[in-house]
Amino acid sequence: MKDLKLNIRIVVADDHGIVRMGLIQTIRRLMPDALISEVEDYKSLYKLILNEELDLAIMDVNMPNGTVQEAIDYIKIRQPELKILIFSSQDEELYGMRYLKMGAGGYLSKQSSTEVIEAALTAMLTKGRYVSEQVKEAILLESLTGTAKTSPFEALSDRELQIANKLAEGLPLKEISNQLNLHSSTISTYKNRLFEKLKIRSIPELVEILRMYNQ
């Protein structure tokens, strides 16, 4: 961390306060001079990016008021130099590459040790890229065989995946429509589509398949 400039400006975006708190504490131990902001949804993230110059955005995938692809696209337009690190509990081998292809600079698992978090922060702030050993192996597998480790969730759009997670949390369609600013009938259409893609018929089946693939 010694080679990094002082007063690095970082935003931590996650809709779970305890996750933000834990990550911010870790960053402060590693980078005492860092200026850290925190937001809990995409709308707040966009507002911050519009008003403040930042060096690094560390963001979860499933947050209210947007999708990760929309956020990456927004950042690329508003602050092209802002480095993006996805911070998620999803399977690295399955989803790390997906977010790199979307335009993120790196993917960090929420199960990572302090040492791995430090390595990821240093790599992102010096090179703008971070790829874990697991993701490197997945990239190598795909380049050698032309196939990647697959999951039924690969067929889902980001919005469908977001709604799948909210349905699995037990939220009613009306609540999901309020959170995402979409009409209830639109949420219902998404639900039917993702059920069809995943070949399931019920919420308990959805919960089970999400657990199986570590979503």
Structure description:
- The structure is a single chain.
- This protein has 10 helices and 5 strands.
- Helix 3 (68-78) links the parallel strand 3 and strand 4.
- With 215 residues, the chain is an alpha/beta fold.
- Helix 4 (92-102) crosses helix 6 (133-145), helix 7 crosses helix 10 (203-212) and helix 8 (173-180) crosses helix 9 (184-198).
- It has helices spanning 17-30, 42-51, 68-78, 92-102, 114-126, 133-145, 158-168, 173-180, 184-198, 203-212; strands at residues 9-13, 35-39, 56-59, 83-88, 106-109.
- The mean pLDDT is 87.
Itemize the secondary structure elements and their pairings:
Elements (H helix, E strand, L loop, with lengths): L8 E5 L3 H14 L4 E5 L2 H10 L4 E4 L8 H11 L4 E6 L3 H11 L3 E4 L4 H13 L6 H13 L12 H11 L4 H8 L3 H15 L4 H10 L3
Parallel strand pairs: 1-2, 1-3, 3-4, 4-5
Helix pairs in contact: 2-3, 4-6, 7-9, 7-10, 8-9
Summarize the structure.
The chain has a 5-stranded parallel beta sheet with strand order 2-1-3-4-5, with helices on both faces. The protein contains 10 helices and 5 strands; from the N terminus they run E-H-E-H-E-H-E-H-E-H-H-H-H-H-H. Helices cover 54% and strands 11% of the residues.
Key terms for this structure?
215 residues; alpha/beta; five-stranded parallel sheet; globular
Give the strand order, joined by hyphens, for the main sheet.
2-1-3-4-5
**SSE pattern:** EHEHEHEHEHHHHHH
* Rg from Cα: 18 Å
Structural class given helices, strands, pairing?
alpha/beta
Query: What sort of overall outline do the alpha carbons produce when their principal axes are compared?
Result: globular
